[in-house]
Amino acid sequence: MNFIYKLILFILLIQFNAYEARADQGHVANEWLKLMHYEKKMTEVLKA
Amino acid sequence: MIKDPNFFLYHQGIINPENELSKNLENFKVNIDYACQFPARAKFLSKKFLITYKLCEKVEAWKKGVSADGLSYVLVSQYVSTPASAFGHSFIVFKNLKLPTNLNLSLNYAAQMPSDVSLYDYFTKGLGGGYYGVFDFEPLYIKLQEYSSIENREMWEYDLNFNADQLDQFLNHIWELIHKSKEGYYFLNSNCSVSLYNSIAAVHSEVEFLNSSHLYVLPVTTLKQLEKISSRQKFIPSLREKIKQNYENLNEVEKHSFNKFLIHKKTASDLGSINSKEIELLYFEFLKTNREGKLTEAEKITYENSLMQRSKMGPISLEPTYFSSNPPHLSQGTWRLGAGLNFEKQHAIPRVIFSPASHRLLQSDNGFLPHSEISLFEVKIDNQSRNIYNLKELTLFSLKNFTPTILFDQRFAWTAKAQIIKSSSCDECFNFNGELNMGLSNYIFDQLGYALFGFSDDKDQVIHPQIKIGTILKYGIFRSNIEIKHIEPLNQVYNKADIISLSIIMSAFRNFDIELNVSSEDSFSQGSVILNNYF
């Protein structure tokens, strides 16, 4: 049981890091997307 | 979303922002004309990827010509004579503090239609994107003349917080849109306000694009979104409103003198006050704009006399300030969802009301013509008994316009309605009900009264003449409409000749109100209490 908790925590931590990384790239990406009138959901496909 | 492939460099750029960015980077490095074609993208790429480039002289000269050091968004009130402007219009003003306000440039976005467009094309192509939208620049005085003087529409100007860099990028972006993007104009959801708003959102970090799934977007909706980046608001009255407010500010002697002037149409021999002379000149401006600049010989002489007298009085000490009691950013939403009880034949039946576009007579006037109603596709559904829901009423449209008379300007009040109503005698039957009325409305002791004559095609499918007399009263958060309707029956079937109805709305919150309706149609046993949410 303890192992499952740790596993969930570990996955959440990875997800949080990934989210932070995406947010960093998002600034440049979002500016480009806005300038080109793209839908906001495309942020995820764009790597700055 | 931009759909013109010319706006993108990558062949699938419209759906692939990543490859579009790579293609633009590549092009930026090799194409010497890139900054002239895409000045906004060139500025963005240069900043983000630290690439130096030479500014395009052509673009810089154009921006210098626009000569802006600020930006404002202007909302023009409804204009019922043009269907496309029935919910208002908007445009942008490039502000230059060194220039007289009227010489600032305005930026408009409108459908490019032929001047002899047929009514059929106007609606089908207008609704279906059959015309291209085009940007155009005009000096502000032309817009003021068109909207404020000729069409008598109120305007509200909202200054937007744009720094020099954002303003420069906005102009670059507009250049790209003008030269590289040709988009269809849709009256409902890709109209003037949407395109101008999205051009702002493209360069301003605090403004997000509108959701493209909206069924329709009104100018007032975009204004409400922009209000958060607005620093100052200014009301620009119509010529009609200007005369009304100037008249209200006159003292009793000045009012008497102006009333005399209106009756005799002659300038008094004594000079009088600057205020009364100013209103005389506004009156002539009003006459001229209503008659395509033409005055009668007698009016010309009086006008010249008034001008001569005014010229002897020197400049006005303080520019008049005009007051707007209904700023549009405080307007209610136009989607209506109501729930409550309908009382009929001593039974209380749960009722739901829904309309996708609704501004009713007793709602707050903010953002709409005072004392007006535009309600489209309103559905009333009754929960007759457990799990049985009946469509009680479908209002296709209900339009009302009670513009009060001011001084010399007489306007007609009118109403028009078309609805399908469930028959009370047969479960599966529906009757058509149409109504058209015309008349006059005016303020009586500060409250609006009206008298209308018209026709209604009621339950028996026969057109009956009718007279309506009513009043709209306002007390704080309460608004009420009392109406007496007399129908002259043309046959024996119709026997409910006189109907008194009362509606009261209590509006304590911006997007919620409670309405109470009582009608004598069925011996005062018909009424409803509804809680409405506007969103």
How does this model look, in words?
The complex is a heterodimer of chains A (48) and B (535). Chain A contains one helix and no strands. Chain A has one helix at residues 2-35. The longest helix of chain A is centred in the middle third of the chain and has 34 residues, at 2-35. Chain A is rod-shaped. The N and C termini of chain A lie far apart (40 Å). By secondary structure, chain B is of the alpha+beta class. Chain B contains 13 helices and 20 strands. Chain B has a twelve-stranded antiparallel β-barrel. Chain B has a seven-stranded antiparallel beta sheet with strand order 6-4-3-2-1-5-7. Classes of the chains: A mainly alpha (48), B alpha+beta (535). The interface between A and B is medium-sized, with 16 and 22 residues.
Short overview:
By secondary structure, chain A is mostly helical. Chain A has one helix at 2-35.
List descriptors.
heterodimer; A: 48 residues; 1 helix; B: 535 residues; alpha+beta; 34% strand; globular
Morphology of chain A: rod-shaped
Please tell me the overall pLDDT of chain A. Answer: 64
Strand fraction of chain A equals under 5%
Which structural class fits the helix and strand makeup of chain A? mainly alpha
Question: For the terminal residues of chain B, how far apart are their CA atoms?
Answer: 24 Å
N-to-C order of helices and strands of chain A: H
Apparent shape of chain B: globular
Task: Flag low-confidence runs of chain B.
Answer: none
What is the fold's blueprint, element by element?
The complex is a heterodimer of chains A (48) and B (535).
Chain A: H1 2-35
Chain B: H1 17-30, H2 34-37, H3 39-48, H4 57-66, E1 70-76, E2 89-95, E3 105-111, H5 119-128, E4 131-139, H6 140-150, E5 155-160, H7 164-180, E6 184-185, H8 192-203, H9 219-226, E7 230-236, H10 239-248, H11 252-264, H12 274-290, H13 297-311, E8 336-344, E9 347-355, E10 357-359, E11 372-385, E12 388-401, E13 413-422, E14 430-444, E15 447-457, E16 463-475, E17 478-487, E18 498-509, E19 512-519, E20 526-534
Antiparallel strand pairs in B: 1-2, 1-5, 2-3, 3-4, 4-6, 5-7, 8-9, 8-20, 9-11, 10-11, 11-12, 12-13, 13-14, 14-15, 15-16, 16-17, 17-18, 18-19, 19-20
